[in-house]
Amino acid sequence: MSAAPVASLAMYDLPQLRPAIDRLWQAIRDRMRADGIAQVPDALAHDRPLETIWRDPALVLAQTCGLPFMTTLRETVRLVATPCYDLPGCDGADYCSLIIVRSDHPAQRIADLRGGIAAINGWNSQSGMSALRAVVAPVAGGPSFFRRVLVTGAHRDSLRAVRTGAADIAAIDCVTHGLLADHAPGECAGTRVLCRSPTTPGLPLVTAAATQDEVVQRMIAALEAVMDDPSLASVRAILHIKGIARLTAADYAPIRTMGEAAAARGYPALG
Questions:
Q1: pTM: predicted TM-score of the whole model, two decimal places
Q2: Fold of 94-198
Q3: Which domain of life does the UniProt lineage start with (predicted)?
Q4: 236-268 burial by CB neighbour count: b if 16+ within 10 A, else e?
Q5: What does the pLDDT profile of the chain (271 residues) look like in tens digits?
Q6: Do the Cβ atoms of 128 and 137 come closer than 8 Å?
Q7: CB 208 within 8 A of CB 219
């Protein structure tokens, strides 16, 4: 690794959660150093673009979306562990997306959204794009279902687009939705859950691909110690993290097969 190690826990980095995220990182950092991992940054890289963090050869630890983990980042990062959350839609290390519409939208099922506008956070998002595609594919009847797809850049912005009427539907990561409902409920006001997507493994914690096996095992041990530390119970409660799971890259295969199944139904791209 280079002389400038980097770490990020920005996938669920709501402003209201920043102090708790920083406290969690401090505990992880100190435990890693105590376990002999010397190159660990003092602070998280909160404002650096995630794509550059994920691809930095000095990456110590970051959380990424499962879709790029299984596609564009396959040769760049390696799996460390997967956080488990205690929020609606989560089951151990698995999670889903909540399909959101306005509270006053007449839709009762996905088919009722044909010809509408979909909001997604990005084309390479498992929870915002691929999960919605998986829900639409069985009823799409061809490659075109929505009149338009609006790319917002973030789940919170997709939720806002639905709330304000700029879009009719969005798939929101259930962890993001649960954290907003807990810490910023006004952002969920005026919307409702139409249905849920199938579950897949949640957002993995990854490190640079060149990180040695022994170091990865020390990282996992450090994470497990932090999850068991009673002095951090209030921090974990704020973030709704109840532990970590030791998954393998093979456990993330459902993310790839979800896209393949949509393509097999004649709906390879959200549209």
A1: 0.95
A2: D-Maltodextrin-Binding Protein; domain 2 (3.40.190)
A3: Bacteria
A4: bebbbbebbeebeeebbeebeebbebbeebebe
A5: 445 999 999 999 999 999 999 999 999 999 999 999 989 999 999 989 999 999 999 999 999 999 999 999 999 999 999 999 999 999 999 999 999 999 999 999 999 999 999 999 999 999 999 999 999 999 999 999 999 999 999 999 999 999 999 999 999 999 999 999 999 999 999 999 999 999 999 999 999 999 999 999 999 999 999 999 999 999 999 999 999 999 999 999 999 999 999 999 999 999 9
A6: no
A7: no
Best CATH choice for the domain 6-85+201-255 from the list 3.40.190.10, 3.40.220.10, 3.55.40.20, 3.40.50.280 = 3.40.190.10
- Domains in the chain: boundaries: 6-85+201-255, 94-198
